[in-house]
Amino acid sequence: MMSTDRVCSRCIMDSTDPRIRFDEQGMCNHCKSFFHRRSLNKDASDETESSLQLLLKRIKSDGKGKDYDCIIGVSGGLDSTYLLYLAVQWGLRPLAVHLDNGWNSDLAVTNIAAVLKFGSVDLHTEVIDWPEFQSLQRAYLKASVIDIEVPTDQAIHGILYRMAREIGVRHILYGGNEATEGILPRAWNFSKVDNKNLRAIHQRFGTVPLDTFPSFGLRDLLASQYVHKIQMHPLLNYVRYTRQQAQTILEKDLAWKPYCTKHGESVFTRFYQGYILPVKFGIDKRRAHLSTLICSGEIGRDQALAEIAVPAYSESELQDNYDYVIKKLGFSRDEFDSVMCQPPVSHLAYPADLRSKFLYRVYPHLRPLRESVERLLQRELAK
Questions:
Q1: Cβ distance 251 to 258 under 8 Å?
Q2: Which of 222, 241, 308, 328 has the least CB density, counted as fewest CB within 10 Å?
Q3: Taking the model in full, what pTM does it have?
């Protein structure tokens, strides 16, 4: 069901991204942008280690006299687990915060426990009210918008910043990184902090009042960063990070166990990426993940093509997950199949924060500017 009219000659991104562009050699804009960022970061590599050390020193200094000096969101996935592992090695005193939205795999629970035990790290688990969250996920599915993960991601933002305020911590560390997540088409997701869009979709299709859901919008983000002086740091971008090396270390030191797919720590995320996205939207998100690893030099293009040729699910796994997910969400098979047959709808077809609309439309032009600012900040830290 997916259109693959043209595939990049360097990575495996293809025309399932409606905004993809190719040059005369057949290389796509995602590859060119990734390599451009890599070249800029390489120019600043001498400063990266000193910037990291200064940042760690600042985090420790700001946390003096407190129980914790930073907060790290943990899911049990590779990136967040490795970040927490490094934080312990660096001598930080993190509070691990986990969002339980009802979709944890059994392996995720085991992996989280392993890293907490290794570092003697305290854990705060925030359990989302299931009837509210079920209503939200059903609403997003019925709205036919592409980014059904917005409720989870927005809740994570809300909980991390709220916890930081409550315990007086000014630093949040997160596992987002260029090495394994540097390529993601804008057309495949939406703003994670547009709570106006979230509430509009839920008002249209939801059935349960959102009395306790930790909604988080642009205004909350700006207040957290500029009034409460809370900062988020993608510390994996400060180190030489590879998926294979991180996995090997975690398996050896923590008995951490890998998942069959990226973000496999969540049953719903796996179903969303392995079934809903390809069937309803014609998108195989593994293309972005594998293309990033190609550009990072971690795998070859032939290996990526071989992996993408294998279905994300075996038939038996798909049937098991399909039955489990639709039952948990309260759909009958006919209801869910009817939702899946509805044509995709833009998030902007529903009321949205005007600032989010603006940022969504100009996002491709903002990334180079943001990266330039980040490099300037690194240089300032190194002075």
A1: yes
A2: 222
A3: 0.89
